[in-house]
Here is the input.
Amino acid sequence: MKLKSAVFAVFMAVFMCLPVFSITKAESERLLQLAEDNSAFYETDFSGNYTVVQEKPGEGKNITEAVLYRRDKSGKWTILITGPVKEKGKGYLQYDDNIWFYDPADNRFTFTSAKDKFQNTNANNSDFTPQHYARDYSIKSFEEVKLGNMDCVLFELTAKVENVTYPILKIWVTKDDGLVRKKEDYSLSGQKLRTTGVPSYQIVKTANRTYSVPESMVIQDNLRGKKIGGKLQYEKTQITIKNISFEKVSDTVYTKPYLEKMGSK
Here is the structure.
């Protein structure tokens, strides 16, 4: 009897340690696809005013103002820098899978990439574009977790294509609406590089669809920091999005001549 009780106790201890999944693999795949779909606007153009605040420990803050235009169905986007004055007129343009940076000081376009830093902040150019979680990544693992008071599924994703900004991601996706609330970016060796939090979304309704767009995002660079008062503080970039529109934008906005024209003003 004692032996049976001991075996039963061991069995129960092992059982209690096993993960319990109430979400199936198929459901997790659908949720990941929803998270990707929520980051894109394929039915319409998109535009918005972006305020990008870069904070370096001990060095204060730098603020960049910009307008972003996206036409996701064609893979095109344009960013026009509107402030500060010394940066005004600079811009970025993507078309035909190429990204160009324009500097009106010498009226020259130079090639850049999705992985490059935006205006020397902790944000990448790819942070302003659709996030292809389901298309470009495979699900290594998933589990239901709490993020604050939100019910989420935590995904660990590994890249299945080469042209991604980060080869490994961890993302926290809310179960009810498929919105990414937190993201961690990792190197191939498993080193954590960045942590992004999305505390709130703004809901925008159009005639065809309801869109969820972040109100703000906070990006922490886990490699760049400084000790202040004996405590390590990391560089952070906060992106705030306002004046969202889903009205059609002129085709000329997604061209080099448009950036040249705006840079000359």
Remarks:
- The radius of gyration is 22 Å.
- DSSP finds four helices and 13 strands in the chain.
- Residues 186 and 192 are 4 Å apart (CA to CA).
